[in-house]
Design a protein that fits this description.
CATH architecture: Roll
Protein name: Fasciclin domain-containing protein
Radius of gyration: 19 Å
Oligomer: single chain
CATH superfamily: FAS1 domain
CATH class: Mainly Beta
Structural class: alpha+beta
Shape: globular
Order of helices and strands: HHHHHEHHHEHEEEEE
Largest sheet: 7 strands, mixed
Strand order of the largest sheet: 2-1-7-6-5-4-3
Helix content: 25-40%
């Protein structure tokens, strides 16, 4: 008969303990960086957060709302933006826990940590089209659709978007 003691003695303890690990889910129990890790199509953005040191900020209590571009959307951004570090990435992070209905209740506007605004400029209620705007200015630059909204995190919300949002130069 195999007992727990004999299993551990035979080196099976690690196997037994690994079966007890909890998989990361998007139900509000795990922090933003862990939830981003469950989305393979935003791996480039997640890597950029790590390189910039913002992963440590996003590990904090928050709450934060993150607009995470897909790898395809990230690749389409300028090299200047992709290599812009924390300053550039703050264009995609807002303070607060903002689901799509919360954004709509704010008139379709979100102030990002960088000081720019993200505004809803079209699309549908389930998949809005958003665009960046300089504070107090009209939306400009590339727009993107929210393709996977409301990924719940313990310290905020992630919205996966199809591009990088940067307002055009004034």
């Amino acid at each position: 008969m195999i007992t727990r003691r004999s299993l551990f003695a035979a080196g099976g303890g690690a196997l037994l303990l690994s079966a007890c690990e909890t998989a990361v889910t998007i139900d509000g129990r795990f922090p933003i960086m862990d939830v981003l890790g469950t989305q393979p199509d935003v791996s480039e953005f997640r890597s950029a957060l790590r390189r910039s040191g913002l992963d440590q900020e996003l590990a904090g209590a928050g709450p934060f709302t993150v607009f995470a571009p897909t790898n395809l959307g990230w690749a389409a951004a300028s090299a200047e933006f992709r290599n812009g570090g924390a300053a550039a990435l703050r264009n995609l992070i807002a303070g607060g826990r903002l689901r799509l209905p919360d954004i709509q209740a704010r008139g379709g506007r979100v102030r990002m940590l960088s000081g720019i605004d993200i505004r809803v400029v079209g699309g549908t209620a389930a998949e809005p089209r958003i665009q960046a705007a300089r504070a107090g200015g009209a939306p400009s630059g590339a727009s993107a659709s929210v393709i996977r909204p409301n990924l719940l995190c313990s310290n905020g919300i992630v919205h996966v978007i199809g591009g990088v949002l940067i307002p055009t130069a004034a």
